Amino acid sequence: MRYFLSRSRRAGAAFPLAIGLVALISQLAACQRTTGPAVDPSTPRVLFVGNSLTAANDLPGLVSAIASAAGWPVVVESVTGDGLALIDHLTGSTDAARRINGGSWRTIVLQQGPTTVPLCRDSLVLWSKMFLALAQPIHAEVALFMVWPSDGGSDAGFDAIRTSYQQAAYATGGVFLPAGEAWRSATRTDASIGVYGPDRFHPSAVGSYLAALTIFERLSGIDVRTLPATTVTNGAPITLNASTVRTLQNAAHDANTRFPAYVDAPVAAASPPGTTIAGGRC
Question: Is residue 278 part of a domain?
Answer without folding.
Answer: no
